[in-house]
Automatic annotation (TrEMBL):
Keywords: Membrane, Transmembrane, Transmembrane helix. This is ZIP family zinc transporter. The chain crosses the membrane at residues 6-27, 34-52, 64-85, 173-194, 200-220, 232-250.
């Protein structure tokens, strides 16, 4: 199978987890502590993947400078985009809606917030999928650890966010339309990660990988961890470490 097709298929697999999580979050009333638990696990998985698969790989390919500059650039770009979207109603896009003070706004409360949340979901999902395509450049085989990490973390993201969308009064067509579009964008992002970045030098590929790592790390800190620890029970730290170790184990098998 052509590698570009593989990139798209793996991007679609990872992105489909958002739809799976959305179906659970929209169709069932999941207890907040369960949402916090799965979000903490997903955060741990992504933290490990960023550390060992992305930043570590960028360092090995290009050295410290491209890895560090790329990671900081990704974090700055994500934060700037997130600030812009937050001012338009997407600040709590991954919140499940259990706390009124930190719930997603309805369209009546803030006009344009629905579109802002859709763009916010795109901002969160594109860097994760792009690195799946980039990982194919290293020997022609996708990094299954990266795919697994993105898939595992996407389930709680879709779950929590869709529950919050429903709480804000948004209908089924909007919720599944958003996540279906993000799954499609994940496919395209993985393809572009492979085709566009593949023509660059190893140092540039390292920097691009690091940029995605910085964006993902900023996203985890800004949107996933706050929801995970909103109603933290005593074992939430252990759950996060468990997710970290699962991803770490996958990357060393």
């Amino acid at each position: 199978m052509a590698e570009v097709v593989q990139a798209g298929l793996w991007g679609l697999v990872a992105g489909s987890a958002l739809l799976l999580g959305a179906a659970v979050g929209y169709g069932l009333r999941v207890p907040q502590k369960v949402v916090a638990t799965v979000m903490a696990f997903g955060a741990g998985v992504l933290l490990s993947a960023v550390s060992f698969e992305l930043v570590g790989e960028a360092y090995e390919q290009g050295g410290l400078a491209p890895a560090a500059i790329g990671t900081l650039s990704g974090a700055v770009a994500y934060t700037a985009g997130n600030i812009w979207l937050a001012r338009r109603g997407a600040r709590h896009r991954k919140r499940s809606g259990h706390h009124p003070g930190r719930a997603q706004p309805s369209e009546q409360q803030q006009s344009g917030s629905g579109l802002a949340m859709a763009f916010g979901a795109l901002l969160d999902g594109v860097p994760e999928s792009a690195v799946i395509g980039v990982s194919l450049l290293d020997g022609g085989a996708v990094s299954l650890v990266t795919v697994a990490a993105v898939f595992i973390s996407n389930v709680p993201e879709g779950l929590s966010s869709s529950a919050g969308m429903k709480q804000a009064g948004r209908g089924k067509a909007y919720v599944f339309g958003v996540w279906g579009a993000i799954a499609a964008a994940s496919t395209l992002s993985a393809v572009l990660g492979y085709t566009v970045v593949g023509g660059f030098s190893p140092a540039v590929i390292a920097a691009v990988t690091a940029v995605a790592a910085g964006a993902i790390l900023a996203m985890v800190a800004d949107t996933m961890i706050p929801e995970a620890f909103e109603d933290a029970h005593l074992a939430i730290g252990l759950v996060t470490v468990s997710g970290f170790l699962v991803s770490f184990a996958l990357s060393h098998t």
